[in-house]
Amino acid sequence: MKVKKYTAKSLPEAMKLVRADLGSGAVILNTREVQAGGFLGFFTKKNIEIFAGLDQDIDYQAQKKQVKQVISEPVQQVVQDEELTKEIRQLKKMVHNLSVQNKEGDSYPAFVEQWRSFLQVQEIDSSISEELVSQLNSKYSAIDGPEAENYDWNLWLTNWLSARMKKSDFGGFHYETKFLNLIGPTGVGKTTTIAKIGAKAVLKDGKKVAFITTDTYRIAAIEQLKTYAEILNIPCEVAYTAEDFKKAKEKFSDFDLVLVDSAGRNFLNRFYIEELQRVVHFDKDMKNYLVLSLTSKYKDMETIYSQFKSLPVHKVIFTKKDETTTFGAMLNLAISHSVPIGYITNGQNVPDDMFEADSEELIQMLLKEKLKHD
Ligand SMILES: Nc1nc2c(ncn2[C@@H]2O[C@H](COP(=O)(O)OP(=O)(O)OP(=O)(O)O)[C@@H](O)[C@H]2O)c(=O)[nH]1
Ligand SMILES: [Mg+2]
Hints:
- With 374 residues, this protein is α/β, with parallel strands linked by helices.
- It has 3 domains: 2-58; 101-167; 179-357, Rossmann fold (3-Layer(aba) Sandwich).
- The protein is built from 14 helices and 13 strands.
- Helix 9 (219-232) links the parallel strand 7 (209-213) and strand 8 (236-238).
- Helix 4 (110-121) runs antiparallel to helix 5 and helix 7 (153-163) crosses helix 14 (359-373).
- The longest helix has 24 residues, at 74-97.
- The two termini are 52 Å apart.
- The structure holds guanosine-5'-triphosphate (GTP) and magnesium ion (MG).
- Residues 190-191, 215, 221, 261, 264 line the site of magnesium ion (MG).
């Protein structure tokens, strides 16, 4: 490139000189103010100096011609547009597959990152999700290309999660023992769920059912269970002491199912578990179902589960599915602690808003949320 210097009194004037000399293809490289004339620093004038050049590698005339041609040849324009669209599509795909840096510094394609962020939003425990995402990444890299777009990733994830769950004991209570005890934190829906299970046993299965409540902490709690008992026309005993509890058990020894309600307490505190054990005799003819609300935090659920583990907990019931869109906790407990899930409740209506849990269905509940996430 040839570079020339132009000096004028003002910038517009200097630009005029450049344009006249080099034409509209001129490139301005630098402009500066300079002092001109004067005597001993007095009476000086300000001038503008422009350094400009003409890049001879760029054939402006040829470019002009090209533009004219494109305008005068619409067919060629269409071809060019199609090529451009193709290029944009390719670029989009490249961006889609572009690697992004994750927190741990590992690098996954955007497709895998999307799943990773979804699993995080769903509160899948990192001990599970990291392994899942790493294997998903291996699978994705192995397939690669357009086939990856059509691959049934939902099925792949279903199989992966399903293989890690202890499925043998999923589902509801099938009269394997006489006594079913529901325990869990305050307000999760223990009493309502007892009413739902009791109603199903009486109305659908035609069983002889009774209630025992050890929740003498609140008067209203006794009334609540007694009301359900009256509606179902079944007996209900209140056990204030271990002796009362033993007597009630004996009284209902020829019943098909005895549902035991208990007071909701802050079971993060072990004291309340010991308090419960003072009244309820947790022997082997009793199944203990831990009731947890899906609206709670997984870490708290895990702590409560660990506190109760020694009873032991035979199954978990998850309540209030209708009040959340986050289902990771269910899968975390089922996978990390091999806890079978008995029922899921999804509303306040007795007895309708409850269904028996099935491992495949739990996974589908999670995957349905992926559609909303994308
Ligand atoms: N949205 C929704 N609400 C529920 C569900 N199950 C129970 N509930 C409501 O949760 C509230 C508490 O239910 P309870 O059955 O009294 O809970 P609890 O665990 O026995 O409570 P405490 O005995 O006080 O610890 C009530 O308003 C129920 O109607 C459910 O699946 N979904
Ligand atoms: Mg209750």
